[in-house]
Amino acid sequence: MTLGYVNALLMVALAGMILLSWRIRRLLQREAGARLHAERMIRRHGIMFNTIADAVIIMNGETIIKDAITAATDMLGYTREELIGQRPEFWQDPEESARRYPRVMAELAERGEWVGEYTARRKDGTRRPVESRVRSISDADGRVIQIIAILRDRSEQRRLELQLLRAQKLDAIGSLGAGIAHEINTPLQYVADNMQFLDDGLHSLRSVIREGELLAAAVRADPALAPAVTAFDEAVREIDLDYLDMQLPDAANHAREGCARVREIVRALTRFAKPLSAGKSLTDLNASIRDALTVCRNEWKTVANVTTDLDATLPLVPSDSVEINQVLLNLIVNAAQALAASRGAAAPMGRIAISSRHDGDWVEIRVADDGPGISAENQSRVFDPFFTTREPGMGVGHGLSLAHVSIVDNHGGRLSLESAEGEGATFVIQLPKRSHEAQPEVA
Questions:
Q1: pLDDT in tens, 171-189
Q2: Is 213 left (phi over 0), alpha (psi -120 to 50) or beta?
Q3: Where residue 140 sits, what CATH number does that domain have?
Q4: CATH number of the domain within which 429 lies
Q5: Residue-wise over 215-246: b if at least 16 C-beta within 10 A, else e?
Q6: Which of 153, 198, 315, 331 has the maximum number of C-beta atoms within 10 A of its C-beta?
Q7: Which residues share a beta bridge with 150?
Q8: Structural element, H or E, at residue 56
Q9: What is the mean pLDDT of the chain?
Q10: Does one domain contain both 140 and 184?
Q11: Which strands form 127-138's sheet, in the order they lie side by side?
Q12: Are residues 373 and 305 in the same domain?
């Protein structure tokens, strides 16, 4: 074998090694690129998962949690580490979960999906309604290897549904109230007109009776007219003319005042029964306060003496009068019910004081009572949806939350509470004098 031939073989081997190293380097570069791409995709998917508003929980085939995104920890209040290794029963009512679990697993085995609603229990003990969509992933042999659950918090949707239902009920009641008020107003006008006619006729009859008495006195000494005078005197005694003369004018006055009172109630009810979509217009808040007191008088008349201190110079304020009326009604009724719940039947009447004033760019209404007040721990929660301190059946706890939405969100105003336990409560409404996009302030 010649030296040239050996060199040629070496050159071929060297070229092969160079080509092989080049291919290996290209392969490593491709693998590194693929790995980098995969890492980027994983990070991207991780970011996407953690920005999803719904809670995503990943479990193995035995429903043991293997991973959970940020929204799940926010919704349930547990950390990711606390959730991993647990089962969904961890945040569910045990009895309810035990009844639901066989049905869920049966539907996953049959259709690979289960959709339903239940109440989730957060780490802090609070509960919230959730909509759950569960899917299973199976291998080639049909064995479930992974289960993915997506939870959606329905608390806000439930609150809006209740608000809409309440608005629809109020709208229906308002329409019915407007119709009833209209029907009452027509016969009421007849009664009022006839009462005025009877009062005028009564005054005329009293004049005639007085002349008859004078005539009887003048002819009383004439024996020929004695039978007629005796009959007249007997008729006067039988009807107790002096008593009727004293009481009939008062009765007529009271009847007229009653008609005026009913008319005032009808007018207030008619103003309250406007459509809910009335929109903003210049509103006389003092008139709204008086109307609210008239409409809910039956709530406070037996438990409280109501006083008002209304600023006669209060300007008209751009607002939705229907919403403002409802807020005032809620606050007055709440005050009356608080007084009723804290006082016995023999206790003295409570006090509700309502005032209005304006200063600078704001108009202020204060509704105060001398009831039991609100504890410090509850003051920060009074405007939360569904929060209530009343006994079951006395309210669902959304009157004040809706009032807060109306004043703060819809009117750019402020609604705050001043209270101390045992010293009464004062709710303060502040509305801007001019319609503008005021930043909501929560007191």
A1: 555 555 666 666 677 777 7
A2: alpha
A3: 3.30.450.20
A4: 3.30.565.10
A5: ebeeeeeeeeeeeebeebeeebeeeeeeeeee
A6: 331
A7: 56, 133
A8: strand 55-60
A9: 78
A10: no
A11: 65-68, 55-60, 144-153, 127-138, 113-121
A12: yes
